[in-house]
Amino acid sequence: MPYGDPMNARVRSEERRAEIVRAALEVIAERGYRGASLAAVAERVGLTQQGLLHHFPTKEALLVTVLKERDQWDAVPDTQWRIDLLASLVEYNAMRPGIIQTFSALLGESVTDGHPARGYFTDRYAQVRESMAAVLRAEYGDRLPNGLTPERTAPLLVAVMDGLQYQWLLDPESVDMPGAFRDFLSLLGENPGTPENPANPA
Fold first, then answer.
1. What predicted TM-score, i.e. pTM, was given to this entire model?
2. Can you tell me the distance from the alpha carbon of 164 to that of 57, in angstroms, rounded to the nearest whole number?
3. How many other CB atoms are found less than 10 A from the CB of residue 12?
4. Cα of 20 vs its chain's centroid, Å
5. How many helices (H) and strands (E) does the chain have?
6. Which of 38, 53, 106, 163 is 20 to 30 A from 182 via CA?
7. Half-sphere exposure for 51 (CA within 13 Å, toward CB)
8. Residue-wise pLDDT tens digits, 115-161
């Protein structure tokens, strides 16, 4: 066997995995979480379902990989996150309901013992809370105008972002997700990103 074959095989396998993930993203966007069967994804990339299972042994394993891919899209260095960028992220999420549906469905299921996505979401939320506290500290200092610390406010901020997603998915005509998130930001205190509040001049 030529020396380069094992490496070439690994590269081909990685390329095939990436192709499967892209196909899964398309199927999820079109059909939602429940309709995104492994058979549908396999057909899109020209594989049998058994062939797809060689790369992703379960539907959950494939969807967790999709979620990690989604995180790469949203990735911004912690030093560059700002409150106004969070509002832009919520607006962006409103344009991709298929991916948000997948995220929310897996999140809800992940609270059960032994679920394959539980570790992913546990680690993710710890990192997100830490990042949100840093964003709030950079914007407001050690205390927000409402008196809370960034650490106490961070879980509330994350809860609002994800909770709004559930409400929006259930009734998108009635829930203005970006608008409601901006309303929540106004409850934190002074308008973020402005040196003074025109409604309350010094």
1. 0.73
2. 32
3. 10
4. 19
5. 9, 0
6. 106
7. 13
8. 777 888 999 999 999 999 999 999 999 999 989 999 999 999 999 99
